[in-house]
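Please check this record.
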Amino acid sequence: MQSSVNRFQGRALLWCIGAIALTAGAQADVITDWNATAQAVLVAKSHQGPPGYAFVHVPMYDAVNAIDGGYQVFAVRPTTNPRGASKEAAAAAAAYFTLLGEYPDQSAMLLTAYNASLSAIPDGPAKTKGIAVGQEVATAWLALRINDGREAVVPYTFGPAEVGVYQRTTPGANAVAPWLAVMQPFAMTRVSQFRAPGPPDTTSDLYAKDLKFTQAMGSVNSTVRTAEETEIARFYTESPTTYFSNNLRQFAATKNLGVSGNARLFAQVFVTAADSMIACWDSKYYYNFWRPSTAIQTTLDDGNPETTSEPGWLPVVPTPGHPEYPAGHGCVSTGWAEALRHYFGTSHVKVTLTSTVANTVPHVFKDTNEMVDEVIVARIAGGMHFQNSLHDGVTIGRKVARLVARNHFYPVGKK
């Protein structure tokens, strides 16, 4: 962990260089435009990001890929003859009709975005055919995902005040997104496919070690956490609904992958992130393990002579309202990073991440493994997770990314 937090010096210089490159090479296209539109819809609806983005980027990918034909179909192969069709029109129609079918109350926003996309495409047979391809893919995709459980109402009852049992971290708040634990995955065959092995017993040496580490590092009054580690902890508190999409658009703008390349990039990244989240929430609500704030403050006897309660202890950043194990950012950020690694065939991918959280600076990475290492630091320094929880979350993200890359988004004839 220590090596991952010694990169703060010189970060401002790296950011200046990265910003110059971003400005010089930035390109938006229909894929990134509709990612931004999807973000606006998801924010307006207060919906979870990764599953929502996967929901719209899969049909965009299948529509564009039907015209290019270079990669494996993910879910839908249209019957409309795609020859000569406009990829831009197909992507726009796929996104528009998918989002309209799922969010009819957002029709005004969506129609404005759709008209803007189509106005940039010359009228003619290519545009007409592209619209037909995209609309057919969207219609079929919506039919495949009917009752998939996304954003469904799933009852959750908090457990009794017992050792190791998850309790509310915000008074009166409901548990966050229990539906994710039962939602139909995008690439996995079942939600429990990569279920984590479980948190350590509260009487174990590992548990005592992890608790003491978070107790010291994550406290609002910590004397061992550095200023850099505090900044890192705050950086990753932006909502996943905006954080992952904002950063992927910024990243894509520096790569100039074109419509086909971006369609595949966004679909692969968000399918991986979504299934990493689903797998993570399956484990979270299966084990229902308590947060450090509960474990450290408790007056209950955890049976471990090596742990010491601290009733007034508070984490430096707010604790999310879902069970502790495994760590959500460990799962999803790793899935996100590993999807980039699989897409480019190397971990040596330069990425600049930004956060809307105040008093943070852009974080520049030369390798996707550095991104994973920093997330581990962030959630312990933030006081909301135990180290073992992060390691097991990272494992889930890596497994999901490997599964997605092996079974989807690869060139035709490659497997």
